[in-house]
Amino acid sequence: MTAIYGLFDKPEAAQRAYTGLKRAGVATGDITVISAEPFEAFEFSHRDHSMILFRLALVGGIIGFVSGVLLTRGTELAWPLVTGGMPIVAWWPNLVIIFEMTMLGAIVTTVVSLLVSSKLPAFRRGLYDPAVSDGKILVGAPLTGGRTEESVREALAAGGAVTVKTAEL
Amino acid sequence: MSDYAVALTDDLLRPLIKTSWRFWTLVVLLLAVVSLGIGAFAYQVNAGIGVWGLNSPVFWAFDITNFVFWIGISHAGTLISAILRLVNAEWRRPVTRCAEVITVFALMIGAMFPIVHLGRPWLFFWLMPYPSERLIWPNFRSPLVWDFFAISTYLTGSSLFLFLPTIPDFALVRDKTTGWRNRLYSILALGWTGTTKQWHRLESAMQIMAIAIVPVAVSVHTIVSFDFSMAPVPMWHSTIFGPYFVAGAIFSGIAALIIAMAALRKFLHLEKYLHPVHFENLGKLLLMMSLLWGYFVFAERLTTWYGNGVSEMTVFWQTQRLSFAPLYWTMVTANFIVPVIILSFRKLRTIAGCVVASFGVVLGMWLERFLIIVPTLSHKYLPYSWGSYRPRTPEILLLIATFGAMVLFYVLFSKLVPIISIWEMKIGQHPQLAHESQTTDEAQTMWRTQP
Amino acid sequence: MSHRWGMVVDLDTCTGCEACVVACHAENNIPTAGPAEAARGRAMHWLRVERYWEGEYPEAKLKFRPVLCQQCDAAPCESVCPTYASHHTDEGLNAQVYNRCIGTRYCANACPYNVRQFNFFNPTWDKPLHLQFNPDVSIREVGVMEKCTFCVQRIKAAEITADAEKRELKDGELKPACAQSCPATAIAFGDLNDPESKVSRLFQSGRGEKLLEDVGTQPKIVYLKRQATA
Known about the structure:
The complex is a heterotrimer. By secondary structure, chain A is of the alpha+beta class.
């Protein structure tokens, strides 16, 4: 599959190209925007906004909490040993373990969710150009769904692309 | 790319690409120091803890002092980095990675000591909860088991907190290098490209991590303090220990950070990025922590003095006037008098001034841990069984080796990873573009504009 | 009937001769530290006689007290052991499981009485003591904590014998090594669950007090105060 992409110097230019591509009928999901730093203020970043990571972190925390309760209470009841005159299931000390496991659950879930939703580690690189590391912003679209190369090139040029290249994916 | 970004990338990648003989000399020296420590540990495992200076009743001394000290040092890193991130303090940008690195390595060193100090260290894994053949689990009422959980959680959290924002920088280095470096950084970058989705997810993850890591950090040193406060012995069984230790940890951590930053600035030529104002700001934080430390010490000692319990006052006078007085007053000078004087006056709050104050704090905080442990253990309730303590060579070698290990880890890290977060510095040039600061109307207006 | 073991030490009768200390060493295979290690503070007495004096000879006033593991009901050493090596048995004893101990030494730090000892090195015995081990007691290796067990090996042996003979244990039938060897019979040992036993009666004595009772450890040894000072 061929993709056409342009390299832009400034995020405003990339935004114009993005708007142009949308007007040319490219679906937002097909447009790739790649940069060496985030530009959350621009519309091209907004389509991927989601609060899923926060919700997943909460779920991870709950799983951690339950694991902590099961681990402490369960093992204390499995072989009840009296220590220091304390009850067999000692809630105050158990709270410490439960807290740590809750936080561990939230942290690990956050990281795993980040990696999975960003499709990292990526074994096959998608659309990319090392010029991005020189500060260029890449805006591109694949030539699928009957899209013509000219329409894409036109939209990119309207944004003021420094270069326009083709890539095989 | 702007001139600033070009210079930034060049300056921060130079240590990764260029290596001088000085680096290798330093590494060899540090490896020698660390191997002395490893040798001392091997000797101790072979012969027994008896090669140390411990005795009955002083069963903990240098070992646990080092443990608490290094876990304490680990606190500024993630805490400063996380808190500054959460309050959007822009000046944090060149500081965060230096700080996070300190956390991870100080934690690793500190976490060695629960293993090193054991009488039978080859059985350390019994602290882990796993289904064993003997059907027995760890005792969750023991603060040592809490230590295991807390430190594991904190180490996992801070390692991830360090690694995640490094991914885009690994991608940058990957694109700028060839050969084995390109292969190494390709793996470390995990195939990061920098799509808007990846950026958004990364920033969300960092936000969550920053929120989560703060209570974890607070809990870790509180739990370490519980190793002492849960024992009903004079001047350990105090309710103040939790907050006191956390404050002390942040205090020592900021000092370590200032020293690390000063060293990096000098040896990696980062004067353009680590400005005197960064040291000034950290110096102000250090001053505040010094005052807070003084406050806690005063509160604890005043309460003890008013309580006038026989056993407590014995330990009290040991530190204030008797055998431990020289160490005690050195600690007060190094932790409070010198830093407050230096850091209160802007003229003295230079980089050099902050570094001097920080060295004092590092010394003072090590002494503080020692003076919490040994005076109490050597003077418990029954005077006939009081004791004393003198360190022996293996313990001293281990202590020196921990400092060697910390510097070694740091040097190796800064050789392999840009020590200042490049992408975050780039954002720092125009922070309003990176954050969602515009309403939809504003945005619409902005991008309707034609060139 | 389940037992709850307790001990009474009569400080009036005790002469401070330390026969109990020696007997404890012999019974429990406790190593000798030797002069160098003892000077370093590593003498391993499970039971020691503490001496305190005021004034100079011949007006010196002397007090002494045998101190051993108090088998506390709210033992601070038990809750801090990460591996359950120190825990409470149904008979009220503080058990020390050598095989479970990894040597964190937290229990020794938490003990207000300093009765716990640590094997800083592999144990050695001055000759010919290496020939007189008690086969009923295991030898502890380096890195393991140990302390007075109320001679649990004797307790177990007596209980097994009584069980086999289908009878109850008689009061006074079972004595730990210290009680057995005291020439002044200052140490009484028995079952607190038996209201008729000697220790149960002595626990009610007006002379009785516990050591460091206000620390809250609930010790199970009662010391009977001296009637006159030396």
